[in-house]
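Input (structure):
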């Protein structure tokens, strides 16, 4: 298939690009500058320099593609408007029967001990804007539209889990400060397993469906912190952080990280044949993948 991909040099998108090329797809990547263009060309993709906010360029690229895979987001206060404009341009450009595969996130489902795609949405303010755009895209007539909702993405020492190792060391003897109080769980997915899910959904998933992208392992922040503490030579000592302090330190991002979320990702396994196989987040911590350089 001819794929139009955004975010091809980002944490998730760069691994999606590799998985697409390895699966024999032809990829055109929208990137911001010459340096990023060189990176995606080295991977075997065609590079177009531009911006996801350029409606005309996005519409033209969508019109020439069999499928659009969107992994890019500004990640700031402009994210809602940028995504809304991007989706509008893609829907106007895609020909009937083409595919739109977008990236959402598990946070929109709020806290829960057994989250599924049917769990009523209860998003924290940070991601509350997603619901309107997600629903619009999933209900778009004439195209096959799907939504991938990753949990906490990890791997290669990157992503949100690196925050655990970056916690302050307080007290005497020193202990590692947790992100929040500690009992809350994070539903997780390895970035390479996630990339394989995009490829599976591209060819197998039904239009109008959303898929929780989680590997089935949901460690508590306390478990992660204690292991990180041992890796840092602090003998597993950790100190809880009051939720109000987490929010004061990290804002709306911190509020999202305080949610207790557990999920299996069973639907993606059942309907898409997805088989996540990489080490768990705790295993990557234990192997030293997130140790400070």
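Output (sequence):
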């Amino acid at each position: 298939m001819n794929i139009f991909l955004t975010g091809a040099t980002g944490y998730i998108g760069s691994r999606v690009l590799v998985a697409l090329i390895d699966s024999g797809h032809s990829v055109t990547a929208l990137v911001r500058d010459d340096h990023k263009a060189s990176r995606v060309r080295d991977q075997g993709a065609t590079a177009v320099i531009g911006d996801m906010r350029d409606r005309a360029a996005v519409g033209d690229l969508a019109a020439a593609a069999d499928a659009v895979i969107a992994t890019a987001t500004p990640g700031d206060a402009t994210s809602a408007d940028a995504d809304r404009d991007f989706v509008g341009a893609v829907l106007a450009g895609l020909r009937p029967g083409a595919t739109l595969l977008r990236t959402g996130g598990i946070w929109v489902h709020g806290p829960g001990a057994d989250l599924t795609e049917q769990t009523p949405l209860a998003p924290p303010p940070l991601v509350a804007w997603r619901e309107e755009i997600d629903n619009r895209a999933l209900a778009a007539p004439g195209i096959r539209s799907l939504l991938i909702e990753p949990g906490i993405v990890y791997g290669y020492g990157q992503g949100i889990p690196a925050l655990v190792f970056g916690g302050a060391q307080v007290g005497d003897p020193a202990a590692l400060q947790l992100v929040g109080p500690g009992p809350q769980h994070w539903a997780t997915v390895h970035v390479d397993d996630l990339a394989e899910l995009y490829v599976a959904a591209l060819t197998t998933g039904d239009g109008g469906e959303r898929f929780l992208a989680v590997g089935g392992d949901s460690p508590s922040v306390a478990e992660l912190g204690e292991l990180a503490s041992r890796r840092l030579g602090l003998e597993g000592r950790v100190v809880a952080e009051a939720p109000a302090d987490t929010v004061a330190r990290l804002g709306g991002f911190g509020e999202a990280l305080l949610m207790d979320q557990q999920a299996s990702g069973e639907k993606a396994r059942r309907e898409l044949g997805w088989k996540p196989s990489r080490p768990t987040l705790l295993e990557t911590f234990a192997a030293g993948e997130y140790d400070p350089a």
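Notes: The chain is about 40% helix and 20% strand. The chain has a mean pLDDT of 97.
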